[in-house]
Specification:
The complex is a heterodimer of chains A (about 425) and B (about 300). Chain A is of the alpha/beta class. Chain A has 19 helices and 13 strands. In chain A, the strands form three sheets. In chain A, strands 1, 2, 3, 6, 7, 10, 11, 12 and 13 form a nine-stranded mixed sheet that branches. Chain A has a two-stranded antiparallel ribbon with strand order 4-5. A two-stranded antiparallel sheet of chain A has the order 8-9. The model of chain B has no long low-confidence stretch (mean pLDDT about 90). The chains are: A alpha/beta (about 425), B mainly alpha (about 300).
């Protein structure tokens, strides 16, 4: 009995060992042989976050091109996309097509892991001249285009019309310049009611607002070709000083605001104006309905400019990439842009000019039409590898310190500029 | 020849006659029981440890791969106070050490006290459940809750205090906030360990102390606590290790700010590896951190073992 028991236990141990080993081999080994008769070419498409418009278009494409092409769509978590994609690439299991914001595409381009997009667009019949210039120009790496814009998220100005009315301001006329903005913010600030005209919090909205203001004052974040940091110029100081003054000079914004306070206080009726990305439109509209005002940013600096949050798509140079697959991707892109109405229906700004100029678009989606006007003066982050993530470590940490009153705007930008310049030398080129 | 001598001889002959294969099988079969664990250990711990060390000796980018051998150059850079990597490493280490110092005493004192109160309470099950409940929550839920109630404008705590405390954006409040959230979240686990220690106290000792006129406080301080010293030592070591691994609370509550004042070493390593893609220097930082943590744990273990 004892022997049987021992043998059974040993057999169990062996089975578990073999299980682990075989699972490992299965995970790393060759894929199962494809059915010889399967004609459809599968194109794997990874989308950072989940976009209802893209899902709807992809499903339609798969129906129309059934038997020829199949887009295998997968949404990957938005905040961890870099880790997921890089791990997959290291294991040679990366996607054929990847959708993310702009700057994460740069390292792949520098490492020649992307396929130039122009020939693919040509195969599908997509004319790059139909993209908004602000989202197409300046997106080359070493003179080659690898990415195409999928949707845009401009920086917008939101205001609470009820608070405007209560303060004796015209609820349908938002401030158009710095003087009007300060005037309205002062009128709207009421310490007795814990009400603020505007909340300039450190942290999140600044990656949208600071580049907008910087550009309005005629500055740039950096030069992608020389990797020279440029945000620490006078334009940057002017932009940050405006933000700083809302707290410490004009007292229209509270001191020491913590993360999300501008959003939370706006929703609770304690903050009258917000400058943030278009992604805030849906929750604000849900709360205020017709009492929500939305427009482009006021002209704080001498020129109009608006930072564009964005999503781009690019094609990875995977081992299975060939002309047939590239053709399929080209057709998919054509199909995607031709169905831009689906993108608009999901509440996101399309990037296909023929659709944006369509009268039906303006009539059906007036708020998106308003957003589309930002494309005329839109600015993007410089196409430098990992600009978004490295700037959040160095630039925005120092901007936060300035907005907390720990550093002057000029000192904060100088310190951030030195650190970022040092970091530039270590990035892929 | 005595009977016992005959029996011993017969047994030794039997042993000698056992087939060699049988002996080998007996010895080897016991080894087989650990094989499943061993395979998993080598694949998921041993191999990454070795490969991580190799990476730390190279400029290594997750996309581009190996960009050249540097030897111990990246370790040397961490000791260069003029380099960005060196500054970040030591700032992160200083922040982490500060958190360990301000969190471990509370993670020891509060759970031990609460565990004793529960041990003496008639409603043990109820209070054990109540105090253990936050431990089952995810760190995302815990930090979201604390971030919300600690907002400067409109936060529940400031409303209650009728104050304007910048809990999440000013020092020392940012550290106090992270400490409070961590204590609330992890207190239950340490409390259960301390409670298990109290249940092992001999009842006769407690009764003898009561007969000698010791009050509850005196019994707790002079009788109960000294007797569970090994348990408290264990709690100190695991709390130190878990505090050294601070990550999510800083990331989600303060974003490492104000500035980088609550940015722990784990966050510095994470940013180096996955944001800046300097996997080589991130690996070097990790090995240095592991070495420091091992030394601290060893010292703690030696001290507490000797006292215990």
């Amino acid at each position: 009995m004892k022997t049987i028991h021992k043998a059974a236990t040993v057999a169990l141990a062996l089975t578990m060992s073999l299980g682990i080993v075989s699972t490992s081999f299965a995970a790393t080994g060759h894929p199962a042989p494809r059915h010889a008769a399967a004609p459809a070419i599968t194109i794997t498409f990874w989308n950072s976050g989940s976009n209802p418009g893209i899902i709807a278009i992809t499903n339609q494409f798969n129906k129309v091109y059934k038997g020829r092409y199949n887009i295998a769509y997968r949404a990957i978590p938005y905040n961890n996309e870099t880790e997921i994609v890089n791990s997959a690439l290291a294991a040679h299991k990366g996607p054929d097509v990847l959708e993310e914001s702009l700057t994460p595409s740069a390292p792949y381009a520098y490492e020649r892991l992307e396929v130039p997009i122009a020939p693919i667009l040509k195969m599908g019949g997509v004319d790059p001249a139909d993209f908004p210039a602000s989202m197409w120009n300046g997106t080359q790496v070493a003179g080659v285009h690898y990415v195409v814009p999928i949707d845009g998220l401009p920086t917008l100005f939101f205001w609470n019309k009820t608070l405007f009315k209560e303060a004796g301001l015209n609820p349908n006329v938002p401030p158009a310049n710095e003087a009007q903005f300060i005037h309205d913010a002062m009128v709207l600030t009421n310490p007795k009611k814990d009400q603020w005209g505007y909340v300039q919090e450190p942290a999140w909205p600044n990656p949208f607002l600071f580049p907008s203001l910087l550009s309005q004052f005629g500055g740039k974040e950096a030069d992608p070709s020389s990797r020279k940091i440029l945000f620490d110029t006078q334009a940057g100081v002017n932009a940050l000083t405006f933000e700083y003054n809302t707290i410490f000079k004009w007292h229209v914004s509270p001191k020491n605001a913590s993360a999300n306070e501008n959003y939370n206080l706006f929703l609770s009726g304690k903050n009258a104006m917000v400058m943030d990305g278009a992604y805030q439109y849906a929750p604000f509209l849900q709360k205020y309905g017709k009492n929500l005002g939305v427009s482009l940013l006021p002209k704080i600096g001498p020129k109009e400019a608006d930072f564009l949050g964005q999503n781009y798509l690019w094609v990875m140079n995977t081992p299975g990439m060939d002309a047939a697959k590239e053709k399929g991707i080209g057709l998919y892109l054509k199909f995607y842009y031709d169905h831009s109405a689906e993108v608009a229906q999901s509440g996101t700004l399309p990037t296909w000019t023929p659709y944006l100029k369509n009268a039906a678009f303006k009539k059906t989606y007036p708020s998106l039409y308003e957003e589309s006007l930002a494309l005329d003066s839109g600015v993007l982050n410089p196409l430098i590898p990992n600009w978004g993530t490295t700037s959040s470590t160095y630039l925005y940490q120092d901007l936060d310190l300035a907005l907390l009153g720990k550093m002057s705007p000029a000192a904060a930008l100088k310190d951030a500029g030195q650190k970022m310049q040092e970091e530039m030398a270590t990035l892929l080129s | 020849m005595a009977v016992s001598e005959v029996r011993t001889k017969s047994l030794s002959v039997q042993r000698r006659r056992r087939p060699v294969m049988r002996v080998v099988w007996d010895q080897f079969s016991s080894f087989l029981f650990v094989v499943p664990f061993l395979i998993a250990f080598v694949a998921f711990v041993g191999y990454p440890i070795v490969y991580g060390f190799i990476i730390s000796l190279h400029h290594w980018n997750p996309i581009a791969g190996d960009l050249g051998y540097t030897g111990f150059g990246q370790y040397a850079t961490l000791f260069d106070s003029n380099s960005l990597f060196g500054q970040q490493f030591w700032t992160g280490l200083k922040n982490t050490a500060l958190f360990v110092v301000i969190s471990v005493p509370f993670l020891l004192a509060f759970p031990a006290t609460i565990a004793y109160l529960i041990y003496r309470s008639p409603l043990k099950s109820l209070f054990r459940s109540i105090f253990f409940f936050p431990t089952v929550l995810s760190v995302t839920a815990v930090t979201s809750l604390w971030s919300w109630i600690l907002q400067t404008q409109g936060g529940a705590v400031n409303n209650l205090l009728q104050a304007h405390v910048p809990w999440l954006v000013e020092q020392p409040w940012a550290w106090i906030s992270i400490d409070m959230a961590t204590l609330w979240w992890t207190l239950g686990f340490n409390m259960i360990i301390a409670y298990a220690g109290f249940t092992q106290l001999p009842q006769s000792t407690i009764e003898a102390a009561a007969l000698d006129g010791a009050g509850s406080l005196r019994t707790f301080w002079s009788i109960a606590l000294p007797q569970i010293r090994p348990v408290l030592a264990f709690i100190t070591v695991i709390s130190t290790i878990s505090s050294f691994n601070l990550f999510a609370q800083s990331l989600l509550m303060t974003g490492g700010g104000p500035g980088s004042s609550t940015e722990p070493l784990t966050m510095v390593i994470y940013n180096q590896a996955f944001n800046a893609m300097h996997m080589g220097s991130a690996a070097a930082m990790s090995y240095l951190m592991a070495l420091i943590l091992a030394i601290i744990s060893l010292v703690q273990y030696r001290i507490t073992r000797e006292r215990a």
